[in-house]
Amino acid sequence: MPRRLRIEYRGAFHHVTSRGYARQTLFYEEEDFSRFLSDLNLVYEAYSLPIHSYCLMTNHVHLFTESPLANLQYAMQRLFTRYADYYKRKYNYKNKVFERRYGAVLVDSENYAIDLQKYIHLNPVGPLVKKAEDWNYSSYKYLVGNLQAPKFLQKDLILGRFDTDLNKAKLKLRCFTEKEESSIWLPENFTLGKSILGSVDFFKRIEKNIEDKTHADYLSLVHFKEEERICEIFNFIKSLEVDDNLKESFLIYALKTKTSLKNSDIAKKIPSLLKAVSVSSRFYCLRERAISENFVKKVLCDIDLL
Predict the structure, then answer these.
(1) Number of domains observed in the structure of the chain
(2) Each residue's pLDDT tens digit, 72-95
(3) Residues 86/35, Cβ–Cβ less than 8 Å
(4) CA torsion sign, 230 to 216 to 206 to 51?
(5) N or C, which end of the chain has less CB nearby within 10 Å?
(6) Which among 26, 49, 45, 46 is positioned nearest to 36, based on CA atoms?
């Protein structure tokens, strides 16, 4: 199975997940949960990697992390290796402990932090407990209560989204998280290319941080962005009050300058064009007209700003 795209940069947020190999149990008793959280604290101190929400289920893990130093992969490698070594020693286990690599979806924290924490904290509700606060192995009770939180848990990001007054923020967080809704929010429904929990605009902002431009996930995101750009161009050209022939020429110019479409691809998107060669001729004719016609020049400038 191909590996998913990993995107790391200073200050990035991630939803990290990891599951027991073949869905086996990872945490059998209190000592196991405590050991993982202790390892998480060591990783926080060594790599300056704060956690904003977490939940340890019996056979998988959810972490909402932030990496100010862009070192998530090293921190997670150490975390899961330490726990795997402990698990193998304690249970005399010889096989793999975790299934594949951990998952790390980049998160647009501005728009998805509170939905993601809700999803994470509600994981045990139903199969294991009646209320999120009843599960001892998540960050929820620390966020809504007055218990001393682990060092690695940073509460300000989540609580600050609800209110500047701490007590009001806790109450609003509880109401938001425990409110019954007709539909369940799932992160995968808002994830682009299986790698980014965020919008296309968010992808555009962080695209420069993606090193592997050949990865299938990246290419699917680029395709998604390209289709959005084409739609934007068509809507802009449609709004112009000019005759159809000139609209086609403006459309050709926009598609050639603002997308990666080839002439043959552009011709397919404009039914009245029969040959790709007419795309080039119409493009250069329009540029010639812009030299002497101010209106054409102005529209081309508007297109360049799209």
Answers:
(1) 2
(2) 999 999 999 999 999 999 999 999
(3) yes
(4) positive
(5) N
(6) 26
H or E element, residue 52: strand 51-56
Do 63 and 90 reside in the same domain of the chain? yes
Q: How far is CA 6 from CA 51, 67, 179, 268, 305, in A?
A: 19, 13, 33, 35, 31
Enclosing domain of residue 162 = 12-198
Whether residue 56 is found in the same domain as residue 114 = yes
Beta carbons of 240 and 271 less than 8 angstroms apart: no
**149-182 per-position pLDDT tens digit:** 999 999 999 999 999 999 999 999 999 999 887 6
- Residue 50 counted as domain residue: yes
Residue 171, φ and ψ in degrees, nearest 5:
-65, -45
State which of 198, 233, 263 marks the end of a domain: 198
Please choose, from the candidates 120, 93, 97, 94, the residue with its C-alpha nearest in 3D space to the C-alpha of residue 19: 97
State the residue for tokens 């001892």. 136
Q: What distance in Å separates the CA atoms of residue 305 and residue 47, rounded to the nearest whole number?
A: 42
What is the gyration radius of the CA atoms in the chain, in angstroms?
26
Pair 102, 227 in one domain:
no
Question: Does 163 share its domain with 229?
Answer: no
Q: How would you list the strands of the sheet with 191-192, edge to edge?
A: 51-56, 60-67, 12-19, 103-107, 196-197, 191-192
3-state secondary structure 50-107: CEEEEEECCCEEEEEEEECCCCHHHHHHHHHHHHHHHHHHHHCCCCCCECCCCEEEEE
pTM (predicted TM-score): 0.73
Q: Is the dihedral of CA 26, 32, 35, 41 positive or negative?
A: positive
Tell me if 4 is assigned to some domain.
no
